């Protein structure tokens, strides 16, 4: 599987040029056999170092190597995969807060999408509106 499409690579590189911005994740990588989920928001100009939210036992913001992800060999000839259906929808700060609250990116995804709740227990449809 191709880990990055040309359009994803272009968006990640563009995000990497914008410092101090709360980007929406562009791509989600995962280990189909267990622990390991990565939400990437940025790619350095070198084309290797990514930034985002990584969870290999505990979710934290940081950097990792795309080439190292590509080199991981799993049982049955499998490798790290890209979630083809992933849409970031929320800034990385929201993902990080939800992942810390729930303990993992996978649980944060359930919190954010399946329950319709945002971190802190608020529902998007109950946000206060100005009159």
UniProtKB/TrEMBL annotation:
The domain of life for this entry's organism is Bacteria
Which named protein is this?
A: Single-stranded DNA endonuclease
